[in-house]
Amino acid sequence: MKLSTTEREIIESSIRDIKDFPKPGIVFKDITTLLNNKEAFGVLMNHLYLKYKDYDLDYVAGIDARGFIFGAALAQMLGIGFVPIRKKGKLPYTTISQKYSLEYGFDEIEIHIDAFGLNGGAKVLLVDDLIATGGTAIAAAELINQAGAKCVEACFIIGLSFLDGQRKLQDITTVYSLVEIN
Length: 182
Ligand code: AMP
Known about the structure:
The chain is of the alpha/beta class. The protein is about 30% helix and about 35% strand. The structure holds adenosine monophosphate.
């Protein structure tokens, strides 16, 4: 299920660039202008539904916080469950966690140990808004696998292809980004 040129343009033009946020030199890709644009949000979710409806997925997992919005909406459309992967200290039950490096220092994300049921082998799609260096998504895909499931694909609205993240994540799972920024 390929995105048409018109559909890609509708999605791409709805994303707003904010220069020098959160710090000088970063161009922040603001997806709030996609979310409040009913045509763009509709085109996006319809495309994701058609792309993933025959993958026989068991769960969608979304990364804190923008991955929750797209991931939960998609899970509901596919008729399957949604699992949040959260920043450290937010999940109330027993968790497993992964540390990953940022430009300066470390961050940590967590998942509930029983998030994908107790049988093992659940097929999971990982969703986030954007992949940059890939540190967050690699840690998230590893968490899914450590929780006894299988991360069968990672899906992003935006891929920053001038960074190495997508290539590194491909060692762990298949990667799909709708809009590539060179
Ligand atoms: P990374 O771990 O470097 O791939 O960073 C990915 C995470 O940081 C995602 O959850 C994004 O939402 C966020 N992020 C990184 N860079 C940007 C950017 N230029 N614009 C918007 N979000 C970003």
